[in-house]
Design goal:
Elements lengths: L2 H18 L4 H7 L4 H8 L7 H11 L3 H6 L4 H11 L5 H14 L2
Helix pairs in contact: 2-3
Organism: Eisenbergiella tayi
Pfam families: HTH_19 (PF12844)
Protein name: Anaerobic benzoate catabolism transcriptional regulator
């Protein structure tokens, strides 16, 4: 994959997280301690984040660096997301499904 495509996809993932957090570009730029113009360029895939800023995105925006860079969700993160989106009264069903899946893998 071309470097520019990677930057475009990273920018899209960053934009989705910002919108999920109901933040403006200005608010996000302030959170990441960068200018609004620079942040906009990052979302459009024209500029790249430094390692320090990627870690800041992780700490302040709860966006996993692996997901930000590759779009891949790690298995533990995926389970956390599934349980987070599940209503409390249905968690026991998910737990039973996981137990069943574990038995199938043996």
């Amino acid at each position: 994959m071309a470097a520019t495509q990677v930057l475009v996809e990273m920018g899209e993932r960053l934009r989705r997280q910002r919108k999920k957090m109901k933040m403006t570009q200005e608010e996000t730029a302030e959170l990441l301690e960068i200018s609004t113009t620079f942040y906009g360029e990052i979302e459009r895939g024209n500029k790249r984040l430094s390692i320090e800023k990627i870690l800041l995105v992780y700490k302040k925006m709860d966006l996993d660096p692996t997901y930000l860079l590759t779009g891949e969700i790690t298995s533990n993160k995926m389970l956390v997301e599934i349980f987070k989106d599940c209503p409390k009264e249905k968690e026991h069903i998910l737990e039973q499904i996981l137990i069943y899946l574990k038995m199938l893998c043996k």
